[in-house]
């Protein structure tokens, strides 16, 4: 494939596969993705305009949340389509090269890493699990004024201990859940808790984890997560996936020439 009139945007690297991608699939900027073969690897690429993806305009675009969200959705759409037909090794958002030669040079340099990670990810997907707990509601105050300052302080200490105990129980549940799910997965990653102001999710994020699970075991993994939802009705457990194994691609993530 040629990158005449634009740059090469790379979504993922995978092994050659026979199944066809969706006929109407469009990638970043609306261009359909294609396959660039090199030795035993395939890069999934499309052409993007220099006016958006050359180093300087790209730096400006990455500060534009609307542009960034639209680009991320298009990127993820291609990865999702790939996940239905093969095991992709997704590259970072906005991994861009000057031309096909640059992509092949990247694959040549990282071939051993790519093949190693693809062997490890073959037949496996990523599931995400998040756990949220709402702050405990303060207990109702007794009617009337406290009999004394000592009674007031005693009530405050009681309220504080009750609050701390509820959080301790929630955090312990998160720890036990992660251990239980990790035993059913081939690998796991703990990510930093999400900021509620950025994610828009209610409650405090006590667990933000990814699990690498074989496709054959995924149904059992999902059932295990569903069963845990009844164990702690005051805690919200969210399951997402199956995804391409973004959290398990190291050390093969490649940086593009931006």
From TrEMBL:
Residues 131-161 are annotated as: Disordered. It comes from the Bacteria. It is found in: Gas vesicle. Residues 151-161 have a biased composition (Basic and acidic residues). The keyword Acetylation does not apply. Its main location: other. This is GvpL/GvpF family gas vesicle protein.
């Amino acid at each position: 494939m040629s990158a005449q009139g634009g740059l090469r945007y790379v979504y993922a690297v995978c092994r050659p596969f026979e199944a066809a991608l969706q006929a109407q699939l469009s990638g970043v900027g609306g261009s359909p993705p294609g396959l660039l073969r090199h030795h035993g690897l395939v890069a999934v690429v499309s052409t993007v305009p220099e006016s958006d993806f050359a180093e300087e305009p790209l730096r400006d675009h990455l500060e534009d949340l609307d542009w960034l969200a639209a680009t991320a959705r298009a990127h993820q759409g291609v990865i999702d389509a790939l996940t239905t037909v093969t095991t992709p090794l997704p590259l970072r958002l906005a991994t861009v090269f000057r031309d096909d030669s640059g992509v092949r040079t990247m694959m040549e340099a990282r071939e051993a890493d790519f093949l190693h990670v693809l062997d490890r990810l073959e037949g496996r997907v990523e599931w995400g699990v998040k756990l949220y707990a709402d702050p405990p509601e303060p207990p109702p105050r007794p009617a009337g004024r406290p009999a004394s300052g000592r009674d007031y302080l005693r009530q405050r200490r009681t309220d504080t201990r009750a609050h701390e105990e509820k959080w301790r129980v929630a955090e312990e549940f998160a720890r036990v859940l992660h251990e239980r799910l990790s035993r059913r997965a081939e690998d796991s990653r703990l990510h930093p808790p999400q900021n509620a102001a950025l994610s828009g999710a209610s409650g405090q994020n006590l667990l933000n984890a990814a699990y690498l699970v074989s496709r054959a075991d995924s149904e059992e993994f999902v059932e295990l997560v569903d069963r845990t939802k009844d164990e702690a009705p005051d805690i919200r457990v969210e399951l997402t996936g199956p995804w391409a194994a973004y959290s398990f691609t190291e050390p093969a993530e490649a940086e593009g020439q931006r």
